[in-house]
Amino acid sequence: RMIENVEHATGVTTVMTGYSLEDIADDIDCNAERMPMGVFGCVAPFNFPAMVPYWFMPYALVAGNTYIIKPSEQVPMTQTRIFEIIDEDLNLPEGVLSMVHGSRDVVNAMLDHPDIKGISFVGSTPTAKYIYERCGATGKRVQALGGAKNCVVVMPDADLDQGMPSLITSFYGCAGERCLSGAILVAVGEVYDELKEKFVAAAKSLRVGDGLDAMTQMGPVISAVHKERVLGYIQKGLDEGAKLILDGRGIQVEGSPNGFFIGPTVFDEVTPDMTIAQEEIFGPVVPITRVKDLEEAIEMVNNRGFANAACLYTNSGKTARDFKHHVEPSMLGINIGIAAPMAFFPFGGAGDSFFGDLKGHGREIFQFFTDTKVVISRWF
Question: Is 179 a catalytic residue?
């Protein structure tokens, strides 16, 4: 995905072109041309340390700007190695591409610096709101991609055997630590019992272990602090009356006694008002809830506050079309568990999942990194 964005950015000669019109009045022509603006920056998350900065940086550079990447302080090594390769092989002029490490103080310095024209951010919703507000106060352009609570809706006519591998990957890939992960499994009508049985069986079979082991299907969460946070949500689910039908607490991974592992976890009898159905857990914890029909499922999707992504499993084109038109999230999957756009389509949600108006990569990204300068000319 990182490479894909670099390749897409090389289409600058087509997707950054302006437009013109002759004779808007007698002997007067008008041209709209995209111009670089200066310095832009990215504040990146921990979960995709190589890919996410490249949703933005290649486009900024080919548009003629300079760029600063601030990696997550939890995973500084990935971008450090990438920058070593860039420094060895790319021969960019000094200052065109820079990196700065750090945490809150460094981010605030970027938000307040008068020479920085815009910020791209990916992370939690509270931080996205904060960055959006600070950029508004200082007049910066901003793309602030926040958190998610993505519903995965399964209809009675869905092919569960065909769909199960992508369902499992949706919820447990990357240990649930991605903004497109399934966060609530919504069973519609009579599919509930069969879906629950097959999903729990598939979850139980996942091999949890060291991510460097090729046989591992799910690795650890990011840190000891985050592990405790996820465990806290599991306890909260129990306290509020949800039924724990697959318990991932206390899992032991051979050779990694101190690893930050949580096994696949599934809650049943979850109601929409429970904390585990409302808040972003960002871990391998799946609440299952039951609704009576598509209308109630759509209401479930739209009442989370977040509107990043939603997925639907069905064999009905009409159902898929109704779903597409009535749910609020901006990235949708039909019989696909992770609705991840390719680099040539825009990435970003709505509601509390996105603050700004121009999303990551896609065709529109060049609007974010350029000013459209309009030249009205007449020659005597």
Answer: yes
CA distance 291 to 274: 15
What was the pLDDT predicted at 46? 97
- Detail the DSSP E strand segments found in 225-304: 243-246, 265-268, 285-291
pLDDT in tens, 108-138: 999 999 999 999 999 999 999 999 999 999 9
The number of beta carbons lying within 10 Å of the beta carbon of residue 23 is 9
Residue 57 burial class via C-beta count within 10 angstroms: exposed 0-12, middle 13-18, buried 19 and up: buried
Measure Cα distances from 305 to 186, 229, 270, 285 in Å: 16, 21, 18, 19
Query: And the tokens for 28?
Result: 């007067």
Residues 307, 326 contacting (CB under 8 angstroms): no
pLDDT tens-digit series, residues 18-75:
999 999 999 999 999 999 999 999 999 999 999 999 999 999 999 999 999 999 999 9
Q: Going by C-beta distance under 8 Å and a sequence separation of 6 or more, which residues neighbour residue 282? A: 147, 176, 177, 181, 226, 230
| Rounded Cα gap, residues 49 and 186, in angstroms | 31
Backbone angles phi, psi at 338, to 5 degrees: -125, 110
DSSP 8-state symbol, 93:
P
Segment 188-195 shows an average pLDDT of 98
Question: Catalytic pick from 135, 174, 179, 311?
Answer: 179
Q: What is the model's pLDDT at position 130?
A: 97
Contact 33, 82 (CB under 8 A): no
Per-residue pLDDT reduced to its tens digit, 281-291? 999 999 999 99
The 10s digit of each residue's pLDDT in 311-359 is: 999 999 999 999 999 999 999 999 999 999 999 999 999 999 999 999 9
User: In terms of DSSP H, where are the helices of the chain?
Assistant: 2-9, 12-15, 57-62, 77-89, 104-112, 125-138, 160-172, 192-204, 224-239, 275-278, 294-302, 317-326, 365-368
What does the DSSP 8-state code read for residue 360? B
| Residue 165 CB burial class (10 angstroms; 0-12, 13-18, ≥19) | exposed
pLDDT value at residue 54: 97
Report yes or no on whether pTM surpasses 0.90.
yes
